[in-house]
Sequence to fold (270 residues):
Amino acid sequence: MSSRCEVRVDGHLDERWAAVLDGFDLRHDADGTTTLTGLVVDQAHLHGLLARLRDLSVPLLSMQAAPAPEPPAQLKQPLASLTWPRPTDRLVLRPATSDDAEGTWRYRRLETVSRWLTEVPASLEAYRLTFEQPDRLATTIVATLDGRIVADLMLRVEDAWAQTEVAHVAHRTQAEIAWVLDPDVTGQGYATEAARELLTICFDDLGLRRVTATCFADNVPSWRLMERIGMRRESHAVQDALHRTGRWMDTFIYAALPRDWSPRSDHPEV
Ligand SMILES: CC(C)(COP(=O)(O)OP(=O)(O)OC[C@H]1O[C@@H](n2cnc3c(N)ncnc32)[C@H](O)[C@@H]1OP(=O)(O)O)[C@@H](O)C(=O)NCCC(=O)NCCS
Fold:
């Protein structure tokens, strides 16, 4: 079974040895040692590697499983790494703050909106408690129109599924996006405009490789929006989600890769 391995040797190995050592990354450490990090396929591979080091008369100091590499800084705290506010044609997007609880509660508390949302807090105070959670704020963007909040959006960077040996490569490479629009301003393309900006952030700014969005199949405005911004329906799960009305509902998962998407693309099936 392959795994990432870290080998420390004495002296500073020349970069050209990387080719001989199966393309392992070479890092020269301040204490005069070199750390080699790479994927070891199996025991035979490891023995071959160690034999080559011995043949090169390189003193082996230690060998251990390599820690998963840190994701780039902009993927650890994606929203904090970007420049705000971001204007679109008609809206201004910015990360949410705890002061936005009331502005978003104004429309989220409405039954026509909350019927599609995961939870319906009983009061503004209960809503504020969840809205102000650091994880929630770190993944929430609000969109304002003439200074008033008209939408809140989710952008959550996550790991893609991967086999264990390569899980570090899939770490924080995709995002899930979602939206909630004030019903006062539906039917005018504002959610489309904001969602397109989310895709710009995901693909152009954060360099993610895939973006997904999920909704109840009965939530027609939401999946129509997904199609309008160029996302593809990839999954139709049958009666997999229990709605608070007691009905088991179907869900859709949509996704886009950078190649599916262009900010100027016209998706005429609106
Ligand atoms: C899902 C939701 C954001 C969609 O709102 P929406 O108003 O339909 O979406 P938009 O603001 O992009 O407007 C699109 C509509 O405006 C029309 N439109 C007008 N001008 C437009 C423009 N410049 N660009 C795009 N569409 C435009 C479109 O034709 C479309 O109307 P249609 O669906 O009748 O064809 C909204 O219904 C909502 O917040 N629902 C409650 C919360 C929710 O369900 N969230 C998602 C959970 S998964």
Remarks:
- Residues 112 and 183 are 8 Å apart (CA to CA).
- The two ends are 49 Å apart (CA to CA).
